[in-house]
Write a structure and sequence with these properties.
Blueprint lengths: L1 E8 L3 H11 L10 E7 L4 E8 L2 H26 L22
Antiparallel strand pairs: 1-3, 2-3
């Protein structure tokens, strides 16, 4: 069994819960092959563990998860009015929260 856990800091528990609500509803395309476990901690870290007997399936699922999380974080930054640290933002560029390499 292969597994990968990604821990993604999003700034606050509230923001992590919102991101999880946006991406956690998407069902795994092959639930008989890949499983995902989501968690949010009090420090605003969103964690996802992807597991499978197939290494390729873990890689593909992780890539998809990270793409969706990055999109959710960018969208939240554009509309939330709160920066990654949980502070009200007025002039900060929200897109700076997510690096394009994700």
């Amino acid at each position: 069994m292969y597994s990968v856990t990604c821990r993604i800091p999003v700034g606050s528990k509230r923001r992590a819960d919102i991101v999880l609500g946006a991406v956690g509803v998407d069902a795994e395309l092959r639930p008989e092959v890949v499983s995902r476990q989501w968690a949010v901690d009090d420090d605003g870290v969103l964690a996802v563990t992807v597991a499978s007997d197939e290494l390729r399936a873990v890689r593909v699922s992780c890539t998809s998860v990270l793409d969706h999380v990055a999109l959710a974080i960018r969208t939240l930054a554009a509309f939330d009015g709160e920066d990654a640290g949980g502070q009200s933002q007025s002039t900060a560029a929200p897109a700076a929260m997510v690096e394009s390499g994700m």
